[in-house]
Amino acid sequence: MPINGRYYDWEHITIQVNGATLADVLSIDYEDSEKVNPIYGKGRTPRGYTKGNWEGSGKLTLLREEYERLGDPFSMKPFDIVVSYAKEGNTSTDTLKDCLFTKRSFGGVEQDTERITVELEFVILGGIERS
Length: 131
What we know:
Organism: Thermus brevis
Structural class: mainly beta
CATH class: Mainly Beta
Radius of gyration: 19 Å
Protein name: Tail tube protein
Number of strands: 8
Number of domains: 1
Order of helices and strands: EEEEHEEEE
CATH architecture: Roll
Mean pLDDT: 90
CATH topology: Pnp Oxidase, Chain A
C-alpha cells in the first residue's frame, strides 16, 4: 500500500486561548450538537421535524505550568479558542466562539508521576466557525 502523504499530527496543531498561544497542551476535545424533534401524524413514521437548541462544549488538558499562566479560569470573560491545523502550506481553522470554563479537574498529583495536569471543561456559547 503506497503512502500518499503525511496526515495531521500533534506538531501541526496550534491552540490559542484568548489570543495567547498555548505551549503545554496535552489534548483538546470539542463537540456540538443540535436537537432534532420528529413530528408524528398518522402512521408510525415521522411526517416532519423541528429543530431544538444548539449546544457546544469541550475539554482542554494542560500541564500545570500552562494552567498557571492562564490565571483564574472562572474569572475570564467569554473568549475564543482557536484551533489551527497547518500542514504543507494549508491551514484549516476551527474557532470556538465565546467560550467559558465551567469545571476544572486536577490530575497526576502522585509520587513518581511524570507530569501534573489540569483538565478544563468549557461551554461554547457562540458556535464553531470553520475556515
